Inverse folding.
């Protein structure tokens, strides 16, 4: 699935991923391929992006995620890659 | 005659060096403008997506939003976004003028104590610091380190003050960026939100989204973030406008210097020719006088 992470300052990430983990306001959750349409809000925490054996981690202070037809759009504030 | 010549020569060299400075400043502004424009373009996908999200969430729901509270206007906050440096034509003067105008037109019934002005960028403060209005200079130097985080801190203060009831209306005066040569002075109401602008023409309607958390709570979280983005756009627009305005101003200055130089060169050549003519006449008449002897 296609993942796009956007912040007000720039496009932080755009590419393929096998799974993404989010710090949702109501609890952490994971999005895999063919996930149902979803809009969720995020709290402070880490986004974990997995592709094959490659793992990317981002810290965020909050944001939103929309999942639609294997397109994951993440809107975040205060994002840093670690 | 030689005195006049020297005078013109000094003026030519001084105008030339001024022109070099204005040309350099124009170049610098052009580079900064490009960067400022990039920042606006970079923000666009985020802002568009934010609008889409809002239309997806807010469609069909009617939620009370704290930031849309209409209250009797007793206290107001005016945010003045200007630049830190001058030499940008009427860029800053226009903002100051608009502030005075908005106070005269909208808030003439309020006393100076009930009007607070928040300064972002130094220039408006330089002009207005001796007025009786309450002044907030906490974020005056925002442009020295322009980032979303810093702008959001300022926005946070504004939102907090509004919710606490320190003021009942927030107006923002800034220069909107249209293109490098055009800035549009805007006086916009930031709070309370007039009406949630839900972008129309979204064809992806009727998708059965799972909402987590509930729609209502989501809107509560989304609205402050949209405010952050809006305010960030004001600041970025003003920043790009500043460099655009300075570029135009410096271009005009270089052009004027060119014209001045042209005139000075004509004056110089005329003076030189006059000196030569006088000298020749003197020699010729001197020789004639000698022959007469």
């Amino acid at each position: 699935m296609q993942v796009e992470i956007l912040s007000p300052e720039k496009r932080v990430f755009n590419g393929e991923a096998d799974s993404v983990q989010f710090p949702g306001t109501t609890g952490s959750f994971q999005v895999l391929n063919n996930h149902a349409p979803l809009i969720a809000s995020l709290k402070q925490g880490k986004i974990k992006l997995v592709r094959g054996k490659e793992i990317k981690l981002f810290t965020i202070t909050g944001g939103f995620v929309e999942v639609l037809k294997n397109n994951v759009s993440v809107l975040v504030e205060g994002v840093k890659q670690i | 005659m030689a005195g006049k010549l020297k005078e013109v020569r000094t003026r030519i060299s001084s105008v030339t060096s001024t022109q070099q400075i204005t040309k350099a400043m124009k170049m610098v502004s052009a580079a900064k403008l490009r960067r400022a424009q990039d920042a606006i373009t970079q923000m666009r996908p985020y802002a568009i997506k934010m609008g889409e999200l809002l239309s997806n969430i807010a469609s069909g729901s009617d939620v009370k939003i704290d930031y849309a509270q209409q209250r009797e206007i007793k206290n107001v906050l005016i945010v003045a976004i200007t630049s830190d440096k001058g030499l940008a034509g009427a860029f800053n003067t226009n903002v100051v003028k608009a502030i005075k105008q908005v106070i005269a037109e909208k808030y003439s019934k309020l006393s100076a104590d009930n009007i607070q002005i928040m300064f972002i960028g130094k220039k408006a403060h330089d002009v207005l610091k001796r007025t009786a209005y309450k002044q907030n200079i906490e974020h005056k130097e925002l442009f020295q380190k322009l980032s979303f985080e810093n702008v959001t801190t300022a926005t946070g203060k504004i939102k907090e003050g509004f919710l606490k009831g320190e003021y009942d209306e927030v107006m923002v005066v800034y220069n909107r960026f249209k293109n490098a040569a055009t800035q549009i002075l805007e006086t916009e109401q930031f709070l309370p939100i007039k009406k949630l602008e839900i972008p129309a023409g979204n064809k992806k309607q009727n998708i059965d989204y799972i909402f987590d958390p509930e729609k209502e709570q989501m809107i509560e979280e989304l609205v402050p973030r949209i405010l952050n983005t809006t305010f960030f756009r004001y600041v970025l627009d003003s920043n790009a406008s500043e460099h655009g305005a300075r570029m135009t101003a410096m271009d005009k200055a270089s052009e004027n210097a060119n014209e001045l130089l042209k005139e000075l060169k004509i004056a110089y050549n005329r003076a030189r020719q006059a000196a030569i003519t006088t000298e020749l006449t003197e020699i010729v008449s001197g020789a004639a006088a000698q022959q007469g002897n």
